Amino acid sequence: MQFLTFIFYFTVTLFLFQNVSNAEGTNATSILVDQSGKGHFKTVQEAIDSIPSNNNKWTIIHLNPGTYKEKVKIPKEKPYIILRGKSRDTTVIEYGDYGNSMESSTFKLFAENFMARGITFTNTYDLGKDEAKKVTWAPAAFIQADKASFFGCGFVGIQDTLADLTGSHYFKNCYIEGSVDFIWGYGQSLYENCELHVKTKSIGLGKAYITAQGREQEQDTNGFVFKNCRVTGTGPAYLGRAYKSHSRVVFYQSTFDNIIAPEGWDAWHNKGKEGEITFAEADCQGPGASMSKRVKWVKTLSSEELEQLVTPKLFIDQGNWLGGQLGFV
């Protein structure tokens, strides 16, 4: 009897782990992570480690609800991974390291062709404090990979919350919280229907900076584009400061709470070279969207330039990599 019971559970486990058809009808390997031991693994990293190197088929790692207190790393040789939680409110990966933009990050992605859905990535350093001990680098996520998408995810931290470092990326219906340069890097990224939540007063900061984008040359194609997004929280907050000489950040048809610093943008170390920076707002609304006191060097983009930036197929989805991932959403 015990032998038959073993065979039954072994067969069920094998069925779950092998190629199965997911809810969208796309064949993929499935792995279940459950902290109580009811899945294939108890930790997210164990599940990632189990995937063969140079894998070329999609693997879905399902995370049962819970708070996974661990650092998670997806190395370059493990592409085609999907992390899927139940929702960003119930499925959280968190850690509290600080002091280094990469090593301190809770989640690190180096493999291309990646998707996350319904997960919050949190760096707990200084969160919940009335006043920060020391505001320093403490990323929740560090993305140094091409072709990555995030749907309904959260990113929570204080400084450098989301290191959107390199590659083409898409964020939809995400929540991003922080205070200092909390979306930063050299990424070529489109943020759609996302909430950017600013925290200043609760940690004793005088002002906040939402973005610090690092485009370095006019011919570089990278930049951060925010489409139909909302900026909420406490201010004053700058929409961005120029991390590099040709920084590019565009807010399109977005809504601003009354927390935006009147001048809106900061040239930072590039004062005197503002003409090379592309900071722009188009068709935005809300009490913080008044352009009357914005810096004089803010750009006005043509309809053709805007279309190139706010259309996924034109800005980030060359090769239809995003279209291929949408089958899993």
Automatic annotation (TrEMBL):
Pathway, per record: Glycan metabolism; pectin degradation; 2-dehydro-3-deoxy-D-gluconate from pectin: step 1/5
Localisation per UniProt entry: Secreted, Cell wall
Residues of the Pectinesterase catalytic domain: 31-316
Catalytic activity: [(1->4)-alpha-D-galacturonosyl methyl ester](n) + n H2O = [(1->4)-alpha-D-galacturonosyl](n) + n methanol + n H(+)
Record's keyword terms, sorted: Aspartyl esterase, Cell wall, Glycoprotein, Hydrolase, Secreted, Signal
Pfam families from the UniProt entry: Pectinesterase (PF01095)
EC number(s) per entry: 3.1.1.11
Major enzyme class: hydrolase
Single GO biological process annotation from the record: cell wall modification
PANTHER family given in the database record: ACYL-COA THIOESTER HYDROLASE YBHC-RELATED, PECTINESTERASE CATALYTIC DOMAIN-CONTAINING PROTEIN
Protein name: pectinesterase
Gene of this entry: LOC115979113
